[in-house]
Amino acid sequence: MTLNYDMTFLILVLNSLNEPETVTGEERCIIRPCKPHSYLTAGITDYAADMNIALAYLNQLDNWHDDKNILSLIYAGILRKKYKEISLRYPRQCGAMEDCITRLSKLEKSGESCPDEGAKTFGEMMGEIFVLSEDRWSDTLRAMASSLGEFIYIMDAVLDLPKDVKKHRYNPLADLKKSGRSDEYFKEILTMLIGNCTIEFEKLPLVEDVSIMRNILCSGVWAKYELEQAKKARQKGD
Amino acid sequence: MIADPYKVLGVSPNASDEEIKKAYRTLAKKYHPDMNPGDKEAERKMNEINAAYDQIKNPQPNAGGFGGFGSYTRYGSGFGGNYRADTDEELTALRAAMNYIKTSHFHEALNALSGVPETSRSGRWYYLSALANYGLGNRIIAKEHAETAVRMDPGNMEYRSLLNELQQGGTFYRSYSQGFPASNFGGNLCFWLCAANFFCRLCPCCYS
């Protein structure tokens, strides 16, 4: 699970939604105009970092339970105290993460053949992470982040598919691949999922940094995929 | 419904997306209840601005989220007349599934459908399965089954209309992302490395 760039996107979206507005010399934001802006910006970056740590901790814990990887246990040990603090501060988000990671692990163990199950679960987790606090925009944010999560989950599965098939590891797309689905088919699925995300994204009243965010949604999210495709094309050419 | 949501936001009906969002932000800042404590008129105005923005951004009234599954009534009314099931069992299963779908009992609908053996599944079966899966948020299977339904019965507009709705995201995205260098990762790679570097400093470990 690589969540770095998703966290960048999280910061950009939440910051832009809470865009600072200069009102009579004071900096204010649209959601809580009474609070000074600088506090919120720092708050959002800290929030994303906290979510990152929480995910890292739960991920390592899950690795330890699954593979008895001792390094994972050590990492988890380092993060445990910090995680406890974070889970007290953000019980909704951490609860969702714990729940979803457990469910994902179960799906993997049972060899779930329907890719939607895992995608939805991962999406649900992303949805909760993107909602910092419930307000007028939480429904749209949740819908947007869920679709983004579904995209990330399926993208991961597409990228790992050749390796997973070779090593007989679980992959949510294995059955579809076995039934003869092409790369184009998977690309179409990915396009549909990120498309659902962009539809919701465009409903948000985002002005600041919107071109960077659009660039991420239209281009950045495909970076790894394109790299793999280029590699594949080169191998075919040899 | 607001008669002219553009007027409420103070923009022309052919205003760009950017202009609408900017106008909304400016007005929301001015009339936000936190900025006007106890001011009933500001509160009313804020509600109006929110409603106007929603009306422009979600043209279908009451469409819940993407696609708005609540619109299912557009499909599935034409049972009976134009459709003949191969067997009574299939007909019973499909009728049950349709009724479950109409009342948003999607799991039950799938259950009813699973009673029909794979070899005797018609275009209608795949269509209903697509609807139930769509209702459950199973976008990949929904698309898959809608495509099968259209393939089995290419002339059915109902099936096509569902498939179009499911592909709405993809259709939107293809025009949306035009002009972005999707296959040119060079410039973006730099951005990603910067972003990754930034977060590595925040995070005490790396993920596998």
Number of strands of chain A: 2
The total beta strand count of chain B reads: 0
Structural class of chain A: mainly alpha
Apparent shape of chain B: elongated
pLDDT averaged residue by residue of chain A: 87
Question: How would you describe the shape of chain A?
Answer: globular
Note poorly predicted spans of chain B: 61-82, 183-187, 197-208
Number of alpha- plus pi-helical segments of chain A: 10
Mean pLDDT of chain B, to the nearest integer, reads 80
Which oligomeric form is depicted? heterodimer
Strand content of chain A: under 5%
End-to-end gap of chain A: 31 Å
Taking the sheet with the most strands of chain A, its summary is: 2 strands, antiparallel
Q: Which labels suit this protein?
A:
heterodimer, A: 238 residues, mainly alpha, two-stranded antiparallel sheet, 2 strands, 75% helix, globular, B: 208 residues, 10 helices, elongated, disordered C terminus
Task: Please provide a written account of the structure.
The complex is a heterodimer of chains A (238) and B (208). By secondary structure, chain A is mainly α. Chain A is 75% helix and 3% strand. Chain A is built from ten helices and two strands, in the order H-E-E-H-H-H-H-H-H-H-H-H. In chain A, helix 2 (37-67) runs parallel beside helix 4 (91-110). Chain A is globular. Chain A starts with a helix and ends with a helix. Chain B is mainly alpha-helical and 208 residues long. In chain B, 60% of the residues lie in helices and 0% in strands. Chain B contains ten helices and no strands. Chain B has helices spanning 5-9, 17-31, 40-57, 88-102, 106-114, 123-135, 139-152, 157-166, 168-176, 186-202. The N and C termini of chain B lie far apart (51 Å). Mean pLDDT of chain B is 80; it is low at 61-82, 183-187 and 197-208.
